[in-house]
From TrEMBL:
Residue span, Fe2OG dioxygenase domain: 193-292
EC number(s) reported in the record: 1.14.11.13
Source taxon at top rank: Eukaryota
Protein name as annotated: gibberellin 2beta-dioxygenase
Pfam families referenced in this protein's UniProt entry, alphabetically: 2OG-FeII_Oxy, DIOX_N
GO molecular function, one term: gibberellin 2-beta-dioxygenase activity
Gene: GA2OX8_3
InterPro entries reported for this sequence: DIOX_N (IPR026992), IPNS-like_FE2OG_OXY (IPR044861), IPNS-like_sf (IPR027443), Iron_ascorbate_oxido_reductase (IPR050231), Oxoglu/Fe-dep_dioxygenase_dom (IPR005123)
Alphabetical UniProt keywords: Dioxygenase, Iron, Metal-binding, Oxidoreductase
Mitochondrion listed as a keyword: no
Family: Belongs to the iron/ascorbate-dependent oxidoreductase family. GA2OX subfamily.
Species lineage: Eukaryota, Viridiplantae, Streptophyta, Embryophyta, Tracheophyta
Annotated catalysed reactions: gibberellin A1 + 2-oxoglutarate + O2 = gibberellin A8 + succinate + CO2
Length: 340
């Protein structure tokens, strides 16, 4: 399809002699069975409408899932089905345009240069290539007066971002409270102007055993809130094994990012996750990244601290440096106190 990015042409040196359509087992890799499971499911209506015991029970479930899984899913989260359905519809509309149009789309949508991304420019082998495309949008880019023809998209993104921002603040405050900190840190440092949305599309891939939709990684934020379709493909590490997340049409997925792991002094876990490709079906998702300003200093809320103090800018720069040099992210191990 002319809407798909030209993966084969751009990365032809990585494909080598692979025959498209032929079933392959990746070289030097064992075939690992991946078990499908449901993430912990938490009903957030208890936070606003439950009695004291229900509210505390809900907070404990959020705390436990963040420690044991680093992932959980929420229902009755405050984002209407109408907004989620409109978001998916608008997203599909944007990605279905011809590839050449999408590369110019940021101009028409008033997005920052470089918002549209696809593949992995730093990939040196197939296992580092992400078979996906995305619009990575700073919330500041969501125009209040969008260009003609795109007002519905901008309005929908704005509605989604506003409601998801409130949810992220609420969850961060719960997690801070369970650590013993009724902190205003997140209200002061994680503002709509510092957060991001990423609209993702994973096209069908002819060599799903060789290429990831998104290679294994952890998120470099405090929290990520994900709305995904029902195709599936998200996998995460639990107890040293990869498990596949069963989609739930009613739920949003929440995961802990690196910054929350550092801030919590390793109480909450930022775990590796990835997206696997599908040979027949495309997949859509939208992720909201709850981030501080670049100047915000991250330090553990308990002593002795596992990690040294660092700014978000320093963290991002280190991640980008490692990806450029090594092909993948190192992340928090770079900032351990004992590594100084």
């Amino acid at each position: 399809m002319d809407s798909d990015p030209p993966f084969h042409e751009a990365y032809k040196t990585l494909f080598g002699k692979i025959t498209i359509g032929k079933k392959i087992t990746p070289k030097n890799k064992q075939v690992v069975m991946v078990e499908e499971c449901e993430l912990p499911l938490i009903d957030l209506s208890r936070l606003d409408h439950g009695d004291e015991g229900e509210r505390e029970g809900c907070k404990l479930e959020i705390d436990r899932a963040s420690q044991e899984w680093g992932f959980f899913q929420v229902v009755n989260h405050g984002i209407s089905c109408e907004i989620l359905e409109k978001m998916r519809f608008m997203q599909e509309r944007v990605f279905k345009q011809p590839f050449d149009m999408k590369t110019k789309e940021e101009k028409y949508l008033n997005f920052s240069a470089g918002s549209y991304r696809w593949g992995t420019p730093t990939a040196t082998c197939l296992s580092q290539l992400s078979w996906s495309e995305a619009f990575h949008i700073p919330l500041l880019d969501i125009s209040t007066s969008p260009p003609a023809g795109f007002d519905s998209l901008s309005s929908t993104i704005g509605q989604f971002a506003t409601t998801v921002s409130s949810l992220a603040q609420k969850l961060a405050e719960v997690l801070a409270e369970k650590l013993g900190h009724k902190s205003t840190f997140f209200q002061e440092h994680c503002l709509p102007s510092t957060c991001y949305l990423r609209m993702n599309r994973y096209p069908p891939c002819p060599i799903p055993s060789e290429v990831f939709g998104l290679m294994p990684h952890t998120d470099s934020d405090f929290l990520t809130i994900l709305h995904q379709d029902q195709v599936g493909g998200l996998q995460l590490v639990k107890d040293g094994k990869w498990i596949s997340v069963k989609p739930n049409p009613e739920a949003l997925i929440i995961n802990i990012g690196d910054l929350f792991q550092a801030w919590s002094n390793d109480v909450y876990k930022s775990v590796q996750h990835r997206v696997v490709t599908n040979s027949l079906m495309e997949r859509f998702s939208t992720a909201y990244f709850f981030c501080p300003s670049y100047d915000t200093v991250i330090h553990s809320c308990h002593e002795p601290s596992v990690y040294r103090k660092f700014s978000f800018r320093e963290y991002r720069q280190q991640v980008q440096e490692d990806v450029q040099k090594l092909g993948s992210k190192i992340g928090l191990p770079r900032f351990l106190v004992q590594s100084q």
